[in-house]
Amino acid sequence: KDVQPFSHNTAIIYKECPLWQKMQAELKMAPGSQPDDLPDDITMVLENIGLKNVYMFPLTGNDGTSYGSIMFESYENCQLSKLEIRYIQIVTIVLSGIIHIYRILNDLILEKERAQEADRLKSSFLVNMSHDIRIPLNSIIGFSDLLADEDLTQTDREEFIDLINKSGQDLITLIDNIIDISKIETGQMTVKKEECPLFPLLNDIMAVFKNDRKLEEHDNLSLQLDLPPQYAQLKFSTDIFKFRQIYTNLIDNAIKFTDTGCIKFGVSKVIDNTIEFYV
């Protein structure tokens, strides 16, 4: 038979047909469904655009996933034979298989890219970490050697001991961060939340940096804590240790990559039981 194109747009807006969507979601669309087999909302849409016959063939994956459907629309009461319906059903099975395979391949490609990116980031992390570990280690070894000098004054000796102690603390922090990353990757990281007053916690973080060696090395760099007075009595639920660890790392990073000016941190706003912190 000759097939003539439709004289006007027969696009169907399926979001206006919730019953049709429900039937598709529940995979209840029978192969070769005709108007009499369809929900009222889609039947009404078809009647409004003058379609007298519609055959719909679902595209369904092996795992039951619905990929949509193939539709045959007609202004005439044109009936497909059982052989034609069976042939189209075979075509939909083949197409569903192709779509399913394509999605699997696409997922594999994405997983491969994620694995490659994770491997690249891990290598970059190890390079940076080896550099960061070497700095406090060299400081500890260097100042320990200097302590052996019998001509050192007591003031110099105390200063070197203080520097060794600070380098040791830096080293412990780095090692703790590496252990935490390992815990996250193996799913062993646990979060222990407790209620905590906001201002004392941020003031404690500020106190940590008051005598920070990296901050002291920059003559034209300062650190400022921003605490809006309206949040003075605010309490929030968090894992205090991890919150302090994350915020300290962010500020430490800001100090490391800022030469001059002022680094500010604190609370920017509180909306819908959510506190927005910033550095």
Can you summarize this structure?
With 279 residues, the protein is an alpha+beta fold.
Describe it for me?
With 279 residues, the chain is of the alpha+beta class. 53% of the residues lie in helices and 17% in strands. The protein contains seven helices and seven strands; from the N terminus they run ααββααβααββαββ. The strands form three sheets. Strands 4-6-7 form a three-stranded mixed beta sheet, with helices on one face. Helix 3 packs antiparallel against helix 4. The longest helix has 66 residues, at 82-147. It is elongated, with a radius of gyration of 34 Å.
Provide the descriptors you would attach to this structure in a database record.
279 residues, 7 helices
Total helices: the number is: 7
Question: What percentage of residues falls in helices of 4 or more residues?
Answer: 40-55%
Give the class from helix and strand content and strand pairing.
alpha+beta
The count of strands amounts to 7
Strand order of the largest sheet: 4-6-7
- Portion in strands: 15-25%
Average pLDDT reading: 82
For the termini, the CA-CA separation is: 71 Å
Q: Low-confidence spans: pLDDT under 50, at least 5 residues? A: none
Radius of gyration over alpha carbons?
34 Å
Succession of helices and strands: HHEEHHEHHEEHEE
Biggest sheet architecture: 3 strands, mixed
Spatial shape: elongated
